[in-house]
Amino acid sequence: MWDGNPVRLALLHMLPGIAEERGVALAPLLAQAGLAADARFAGGDLVARAKLCALLRQFARRSAEPAIGLDLAAAADPLRLGAAGWALFSGRTLRECLIALARQMPDLQGGVALRLEERHGMAAWRHSLTDSDPEHARVLNDGVAAFMLRAITQIAGVDPEQTVVHLPHRRAAPVHVYETKLGARVIFGSGDGIALTFDAAWLDRPNLLFGATTPPGDRLEAAAAGPAAGIWDNDAALLAVIHRLVASAAMSGSLSLIDTACSLGVAPRTLQRRLAGLDTSFEMEVDGWRHAQARLHLAGDVLPIGSVARALGYGHASHFIRAFRRWEGRTPLAYRRAAAIDG
């Protein structure tokens, strides 16, 4: 089975460092996987997922560590994963974080099915790869499972031992190796894709890392929202929190005045009146935030136009392109080209 779905090579941004620690030369492994010797593990370079999985399998063999995917995950930096990495920690609750991740996943890799299921008080987060053989993708699946386990438990503020990790492949090392590194029970050969099962009550817990992982240029500190938090009478603080809430909602595609007002603990009309007193409105604040973020993305990173549109909360790239023409008098692509020439 050939898995030709595109994946950002940045998914393996930690591989060169881990390879150096293990004394493993990457160049021969890249050649064996059909990848260029000068492959860049940063930015927007895309490869077929089959090649990425082949590289990981070769690395596991050469390092003599079948469960090396768990160590790769431990060294991963969400900020190096583009919009999907930012989205994972952007929600106010774990549920919102997982919804945002699903929306932004196409920027990181194609052919991924993500599902969140709830039944009898338990939740299951499922991640499956289209056109992928579980054994060929074993190291990748190990890494994804470990990365997501760490993210979910840190967001919810719980211990990993309260989760169960289901992996689609056969175990390549003793079970205790996996369970010691993950701190959770592991079940192998569980079928189609990865599954993490946990208490469904975690889904609506506040995100303890809210604001910790944000796109470039939007590094506002997480702030408690609501009139009692001391922001309602502080114009700058109120607008800063609104922008933070807008950034969070944009990742999951759920931007709305009602939702933002609810987060602030006020009625929508109350929020609109407060903003009118500042000669602005919720719609104007969203538009201004989107404009500023669009300029930053187009000038400073390599996200495709469609990914920028999703990160800004647009339902379709064409809506973003029309808005950008209104702001700048030219298309996003023309702006990016001009920025590259000027920069």
Summarize the structure.
With 343 residues, this protein is α+β, with helices and mostly antiparallel strands. The protein has helices at residues 15-22, 26-32, 49-63, 68-74, 83-88, 94-104, 138-156, 175-182, 235-252, 257-264, 268-276, 282-300, 305-311, 317-328, 332-342, and strands spanning 6-8, 46-48, 112-119, 122-129, 164-166, 185-187, 194-199. Helix 4 (68-74) packs parallel to helix 7 (138-156) and helix 13 crosses helix 14.
Shape: globular
Tally of helical segments: 15
User: Which strand-content bin applies to the residues?
Assistant: 5-15%
Q: Main beta sheet, described?
A: 5 strands, mixed
Question: N-to-C terminal Cα separation, in Å?
Answer: 43 Å
Evaluate the radius of gyration: 21 Å
Global structural class: alpha+beta
Query: Helix proportion of residues, in percent?
Result: 40-55%
Residue-averaged pLDDT, rounded? 90
> Low-confidence spans: pLDDT under 50, at least 5 residues?
215-229
Strand arrangement, largest sheet? Answer: 3-4-7-5-6
Element order, helices and strands? EHHEHHHHEEHEHEEHHHHHHH
Number of domains: 3
Number of strands: 7
